[in-house]
Amino acid sequence: MANNFLEVNNVDFKAGGKTKVKNVSFSVQNEGDIICLLGPSGIGKTTILRTIAGLEKINNGSIIINNKTISSKKIHIEPEDRNISLAFQDNSLFPHYNVEKNILIGTEKKNKKKIKINAKEIVEFLNLKKILNKYPHEISAGEAQRSSLARALVSNPDLLLLDEPLSNVDQSFKEEIQVELKQLLSKSKITTIIVTHDSYEAFYLGSKCGIILNKQLKQFDDPYNVYHFPNSVEVVNFLNRGILIPAKVTSENSLENKDLGTIKGNFVKHYPNGSEVKLLLQPEDLEHDDKSNLKLEVVDRKFRGTNFIYTLKTPSELQIPVFVHSHHIHQHEIDEKFGIKRPIHIDHIVCF
Amino acid sequence: MFTNKFNIWFLSSLLISLLVIIPILTVSFSFFEDTSRYFDILKKTFLFEYIFNSLSLLVGVLILTFFLGVGSAYVVSFYKFPGVNFFKWALILSFAIPPYIYAYSLFAFFDNYGTAFTILKTLFGDGEYNKSIPKFDGMFGLILSISFSLYAYVYILARSSFLYQSQNLIDLGKNLGFSKFKSFYSIILPAARPAIVAGLSLVAMETLAEFGAVDFFSVNTLTTGIYNAWITFDDLAFANRISFFLLLFIFILFLTENLSRKKAKYHLDTRGGFKQKEKIKLSGTNSFFAFLFCFLLFFISFLFPLGQMLYWTIKFPENFFDINVINLLLNTLYLVGLSSLVLITFALISNYGNRVSRNKTLNFLSTLSISGYAIPGVILAVAFITFIAWFDENIIKSLGFLSIKKLFIGSVLGLIIVYFVRFYSLAFNGIKSGYEKINVSVDESAYLLGYSKRKTFLNIHVPYLRNSLLFVVILISLEIIRELPITLVLRPFNFETFATTAYISASEDMLEAAAVPSLFLILIAAFFITITSNYILKENNG
Fold this sequence. Notes:
The complex is a heterodimer of chains A (352) and B (542). With 352 residues, chain A is α/β, with parallel strands linked by helices. Chain A has helices spanning 45-53, 99-104, 119-125, 141-154, 171-188, 199-205, 223-228, 233-239; strands spanning 6-15, 18-28, 34-38, 62-65, 68-72, 84-87, 159-163, 191-196, 208-213, 216-221, 243-251, 254-257, 261-267, 276-281, 294-303, 307-313, 319-325, 337-340, 344-349. In chain A, strand 1 and strand 2 form a beta hairpin. Chain B is built from 25 helices and two strands. Chain B has helices spanning 8-29, 37-44, 47-78, 84-90, 99-110, 115-124, 138-163, 167-175, 180-191, 193-209, 212-216, 222-231, 236-260, 284-315, 318-322, 325-357, 360-369, 377-396, 405-408, 412-435, 440-448, 453-482, 485-490, 498-507, 511-538, and strands spanning 79-80, 280-281. Chain B is globular, with a radius of gyration of 24 Å. The chains are: A alpha/beta (352), B mainly alpha (542). The A-B interface holds A 50, 53-57, 78-86, 88, 90-96, 105-106, 108-111, 140-141, 148, 151, 155 and B 1, 271-272, 437-439, 441-442, 444-452, 460, 463-464, 466.
């Protein structure tokens, strides 16, 4: 623990006198790591960033960077002395400076570290060249957000905090920025905490993801684990990527559902035979098979470009999502029957 | 963040607020002091009349300034017609006319054998015109004088608010099938409500504190009561008590309005939703009436008093040589420069202290401190004299020091201090409205970029607030050029301004002699307004 780059130990994060997230602990192991904090709006993600930046104080626990305590009940290093940059979600550009000056002001920061990122490179990557001479009130919300991101990046911080950095950026440009941002951060080895409510963004950018729900950090793990091995029903519901269906454990690698029959796979957690559980069924867990005798009624079909997600109704009125590649030979209409391949095999069986 | 942090900014801000609060507290505490027999006499005689007159004056002025200010702001903001660009700034020139000079002009024009009589006689020969010339004196004249002089407060703030209304709002009205009139009163007007109320509150405070015009028309208001309590009965406690009632009345009025808004928001988040307004081009009769309305307002509020003063100056040129114009000009500018410097510096520090401290007590004290604007100048001047006399007698002399009375009473220093208390709210609010446009995350970004609080203040806030500061300087300058009662009571011996010279001549029934200083006062004020009109018209959208 002592050698972690950043440590947050048992901290209650407060804003405006109210506790937003309780007893949070997590760490960032290496300099240059990117972690993402995911959670619904208003849950306190921004408060966590503001506190790490020194804009809010703490009454318990500690925040340590490079073995130096920057926040605790007794210690509070002022934000200007932390060398932490925070790119705010709203427009925090200096209104009387043009975009160029706003970005370059980041380079004026007293910094002993060797410059990692060059302003020109950032301007090009964030496509800001055309608006360099414009003032904050003359640019769009997305442009303001990118300018703010650029300023935070060029300030060459020890820790970069990004609050919903791409929430106002056009979808078409968003994916391109995500890729380049990830490359840039990893090349420049700037440790970064990104707050977002977009799980895809978090899973792509973060080497670790924290899920904040009901005033708690519910899970802090690799994106793969968060997705495939959610540790609570709340995380499953938040990610909204599957449903929980009732099932009975029949052996150490199988369980039984009234509508789907036997389901085989590897249990993530052991349950004794005969246990009544709720099985997490994700869209990619079931396979479509026209020839199968297990047929369910289609109640909805969502086209997602590369795939369809069919919602199927079981005899006991459960609605199950199933993922099918969009190049599949034929489409199924609403009310038609849809075959599920048997026997059903799920790589990792997650139950609650 | 930084809650309860006693930094230098917090302390400076606290000290400034406390300094301004002293006279307000003096006024409030007077409620518990003994008063002389004047109170009993007044209660049995004129108190009801004073209250009734003050209320009538206030209601009359508020109604008239509302219609003139909002009406003119609406016409120039939403329509295109010949001269609209001229009227846009010309309508603020009425700021250059203090109510007492308007009162002199109004009286003189319609008086028996006055200017109106002379014009009719010149045009139509001898006749009994006096009987058919209406008389605008007493309460009616007073309401007209104050309204035409002060409506520009409502005009400027309402216009700014209209200017920042998105075309989307207007389009929404059309989409809902509203008529132009319905769109105006159900969409445009409610959205501008805070700005209009802010304008009206300034008008209300100025009206209740007005001394020159009230004195000229001999209308007995609470202000007259305050003056009499002090001058005739030497009863400062009772004078303070009446002032306290005035303050309380204004406070209740605007608190009621504020509560009635509940949680409604009146400004739009412009992110992604603001659309520049398209002015409607008027033609034919509509265009003519819009022009006529603006022209008449400009004429009545500015050209008429200016013309009257100019007429007298030309007609009685000897008065021009009786006063030392250069000396009066230098005195006026000296007061303006010093006061602006002091007010701007302290109001800036106080605002920034409030912003970084985020301390509720400090915020409350600052809010209280700005109510000094509602205390009539007469009371502030008298309260100051009383305080200095008490301090000198009980503290300074008992410590064996020389008297400090001369340093503060009848000195420029004393004048500046009382101006400071009186106009602090203008400076504080003017800068505050500029500050409200700077998102707090801008400060936080500066800190995170390594800026100290001092550097953030000097490098980020001051340059950004430059325009707001200029606006505040002009507002203060205009107020001080026109200011009468404080200057009259506290000025050094033989130190006159255009305002005091005009008042002294008028009070000696020499209205013609008041014309020269009045004319210069108008011209200087108009010059200040003109050079900054572009800014005044853009700024302060409340």
